[in-house]
Amino acid sequence: MSTRAGLGRTGAARTDPRGGPAARRPRAALDRAGRWVDALFRSHAALVYVFLYVPIALVVLFSFTAGTRSGELRGLSLRWYGTTLGDQFVIRALGNSLVVAFSTSIIATTFGTIAALALSRAPRVLRTVLEGLTYTAIIIPGIVIGIATLLFFVNVFGWLNPWIAWLWSSLGLGGRPPALGPGLHTVVAAHVVFTMAIVIVLVRTRLAGMDRSLIEASGDLYATPWRTFRQVTLPQLAPAILAGALLAFTFSFDDFVIASFVSGPGQPTLPMYVFASIRRGITPEINAIATLVLLVTLTVLFVVQLIYRRQARQAEALRAAAERVEAEFDDLAAGSAAAAA
Amino acid sequence: MTPPSLATASTSPTGQKTAGGWRIRLATALMLAPMSAWYFFLLVVPLGILLVFSVGERAPEGGYQPGLTLENYVNLSTRATAFGNTLWMAAAGTVLCILVGYPLAYYLATRAGTKKTVLLILVIVPFWTSFLIRTYAWLTILGNTGIPALLEAGGLGRVVLLNTPFAVLLGIVYNYLPLMVFPLFVSLERLDKRLLEASKDLGAGRWATFRQVTLPLTLPGLLSGAILVFIPIMGEYLIPALLGGGKVFFVGNALFDMYLQSRNWPFGSAAAIGLILVVLVAVSFYLWFGSRGRVERQVSLL
């Protein structure tokens, strides 16, 4: 949990050769059986990586076919990418998915983070209930969340719409009264339930492992609570918040099951569109869509990784600075004690 | 679930008892309000409605009409195949993930040397890519033009791979392996390597060391991995839908059918409640097993 302990561990491994990983031992020290075991582990790992990556690689490869059948490579071309990008249904589904995933990520991260900050100060009973609900939201299968949310919205809309119609006519407004219905907003509402729970767990774990002395030091240095939060607490929480936002985005962007229950008619998300296309028959176009989606997710992952590293460095710098200040304080205190003596 | 102590000590550690206490309480309430409202309206109320629907009756035109009957639950026995498939394949999938994942995690944690980080990231990257696409990728490989065609060309006769339990299990291991490897890796890396040296010095062979030292000490990681994998497989829909092709189906597939096709909502609600109960039993078993293991380890250390 604590980075310091982690640093200590690797440090120990470096100085104590016997505590270090077996791979650092000289090869000659391994007996014949040991080499066999090593080779076995190595080949098992290699096979697993082949297993993990070959299917994805084949999808990417087949997306470049010039032929019309999926699962074979007849000449190289980009024709299926042209088809995909010119397909307005694909573009619209992609747009829907991006809107849903961004909204889910922002709402879940904001509400989840502020709730995680306040949760430890809540009365014990309320805290227990909210913690229980958080874990419930995480362990309940997505399909159950989809069904339960569908039932909820069907009931709420069925109950609200007559009232809206009544209000509409009693206000003397002409035309058809507006009716509430399912749409992208209902998908976001359902996605936030479990992604917010994930953000809460991540941020609270980070809070529990946080260095308390920094907060105290900040108070000792006359920072206001808000300033302490902004300059000390928040930077330390940033990696957890970022990870939560990324997870929320990915889960929401990737979700097929919940969206198929609660999305509105004629507003499919990208996974819904792809699933329906697969059911109609596999074409190289699906491979092209899949490749584009892979490209987008990997880019996002890479960018987030860069931000994450920068922030980790900043947090480390902050900690180092705090330790320096602490040491100087100790020196000062020792100095004044000596002077007094 | 340790109570995080400090968290927002920044706001004022002693605030509760001073004159500013009400402001802190108000701030706390406001900060918890959106989350509580969301949980109440979109988790508690929906689950309540699900419970009410599960004892109702199917309206003639589909959907729901009020009622008070346990018939839906009794009728769940007609869906025993779906529940049976879900249970045995979730268990088998979890075991397979352990069998494939443990040696890999062990290799990564103890033998991969400097390539460790890169190799670990390579295990996790597929987890971040689309689940649907990962499952779809196997459709071509296992389909008629894929491996079966290769086998036939090699003179091994016709084999059907798609729409079999094998295909579904393959999809499960493929998709959930990263979730198993990660906790295993963490617990294997935390393992004090001096214990292994000590075991060796005391004359234990590789297998004895693994069985008596490594395995017991990494059991918590193994359990976390198992529960991380087992629970989502229980609610799986996509893998059986794509690779099981209607021949191998889970509770999730039955639920899709009951809600979106036959529109028997009360029966579907009962099945959903049944699924929740099975998951809860699994989690309780995990918690019980985990706590028992901890006590035993403490005793043996004493």
First-last Cα distance of chain B = 25 Å
- SSE string of chain B, helices as H and strands as E: HHHHHHHHHHHH
Distance between the termini of chain A: 43 Å
Largest sheet of chain A at a glance? none
Explain what the structure shows.
With 341 residues, chain A is mainly alpha-helical. Chain A has a domain at 89-312: Orthogonal Bundle (MetI-like fold), CATH 1.10.3720.10. Chain A has helices at 3-15, 32-62, 79-86, 88-119, 124-139, 142-170, 184-208, 212-220, 225-254, 257-262, 270-280, 284-340. Chain B is mostly helical. Chain B has one domain (79-301): MetI-like fold (Orthogonal Bundle), CATH 1.10.3720.10. Chain B is 73% helix and 0% strand. Chain B is globular. Mean pLDDT of chain B is 86; it is low at 1-18. At the A-B interface, helix 2, helix 4, helix 5, helix 6 and helix 7 of A face helix 1, helix 3, helix 4, helix 5 and helix 8 of B.
List descriptors.
heterodimer, A: 341 residues, mainly alpha, MetI-like fold, 12 helices, flat, disordered N terminus, B: 302 residues, 73% helix, 0% strand
Task: Offer a quick outline of the entry.
The complex is a heterodimer of chains A (341) and B (302). With 341 residues, chain A is mostly helical.
Layout of SSEs?
The complex is a heterodimer of chains A (341) and B (302).
Chain A lengths: L2 H13 L16 H31 L16 H8 L1 H32 L4 H16 L2 H29 L13 H25 L3 H9 L4 H30 L2 H6 L7 H11 L3 H57 L1
Helix pairs in contact in A: 2-12, 3-12, 4-7, 4-9, 4-11, 5-7, 7-9, 8-9, 9-12
Chain B lengths: L20 H34 L16 H5 L4 H32 L4 H13 L2 H12 L4 H7 L11 H26 L2 H9 L4 H29 L3 H6 L7 H11 L3 H37 L1
Helix pairs in contact in B: 1-12, 3-7, 3-9, 3-11, 4-7, 5-7, 7-9, 8-9, 9-12, 11-12
